[in-house]
């Protein structure tokens, strides 16, 4: 990851804390928690890699897990520590580092790993595979990892309402049907968009056994305007849709066309 990625998250650390409270982004949060509950062991030590300001770490700590946080952005990590302390919770470690440079002294240490940020930004396939191999070494036997990717097939769907001006160039539409490497000038920061088949191959090549995969936004993908309207006008409809969408995030008819692809794999 370049310094541009670190700078972006240092500049937007407070926004990252609030992002999952957005009426539409809330489904990403709830789907991920649903998968954590379904696939993680009931107890153990979890490594939250790309923890940001600690939204998932807090939920894990509340459930009694031992949690270590690793984050590239020092400001995000500091905010996460502050919020964890305010709640009277205690994490095991706070590590400010790039996962690619983390030492190899953690073999067979964790029962579960969350890898929910780094794969959005690593544009080199070999580096992504090396990260996955490193995570596999850090997991105990039978340990579970949840890996998040940005999915081009879902992003194009969201773009119809969120950034239609980009589609004035016909080639920009076609570009979303394959993997994409996006520069700082083209996107929110330096980023990488994949497709479900490519992501699954990558995880398997790293030695993991794939348990399942999901689309975080489920059948709500691309419907941010409608979901915000329900949130403001009819909370019962909104909450019912969130609940069922999270429960159905692994359904084949939805998971390939959501913005955030979540791969669940086992060592």
From TrEMBL:
Organism whose genome encodes this protein: Clostridium polyendosporum
Signal peptide residues on this chain, from the entry's feature table: none
Name this polypeptide is given: Methyltransferase domain-containing protein
One Pfam family linked to the record: Methyltransf_25
Start and end residues of each Methyltransferase domain: 46-143
Record lineage: Bacteria, Bacillati, Bacillota, Clostridia, Eubacteriales
């Amino acid at each position: 990851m370049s310094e541009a990625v670190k700078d972006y998250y240092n500049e937007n650390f407070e926004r990252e804390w609030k992002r999952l409270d957005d009426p539409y982004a809330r489904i990403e949060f709830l789907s991920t928690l649903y998968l954590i509950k379904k696939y993680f062991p009931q107890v153990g030590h979890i490594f939250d890699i790309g923890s940001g300001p600690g939204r998932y770490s807090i939920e894990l700590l509340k459930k009694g897990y031992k949690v270590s946080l690793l984050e590239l952005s020092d400001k995000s990590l500091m905010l996460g520590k502050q919020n964890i302390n305010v709640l009277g919770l205690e994490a095991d470690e706070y590590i400010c580092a790039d996962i690619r440079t983390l030492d190899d002294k953690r073999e067979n240490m964790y029962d579960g790993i969350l890898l929910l940020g780094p794969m959005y930004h690593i544009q080199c396939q070999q580096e992504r595979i090396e990260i996955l191999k490193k995570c596999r070494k850090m997991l105990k036997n039978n340990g579970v990892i949840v890996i998040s990717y940005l999915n081009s097939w879902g992003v194009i769907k969201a773009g119809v309402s969120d950034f239609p001006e980009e589609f004035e160039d016909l080639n920009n539409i076609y570009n979303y049907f394959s993997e994409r490497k996006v520069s700082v000038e083209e996107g929110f920061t330096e980023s990488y968009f994949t497709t479900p088949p490519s992501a699954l191959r990558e995880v398997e090549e790293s030695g993991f056994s794939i348990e399942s995969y999901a689309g975080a936004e489920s059948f709500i993908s691309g419907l941010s305007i409608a979901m915000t309207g329900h949130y403001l006008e009819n909370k019962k409809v909104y909450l019912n849709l969130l609940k069922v969408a999270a429960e159905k995030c692994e359904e084949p008819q939805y998971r390939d066309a959501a913005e955030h692809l979540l791969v669940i794999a086992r060592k």
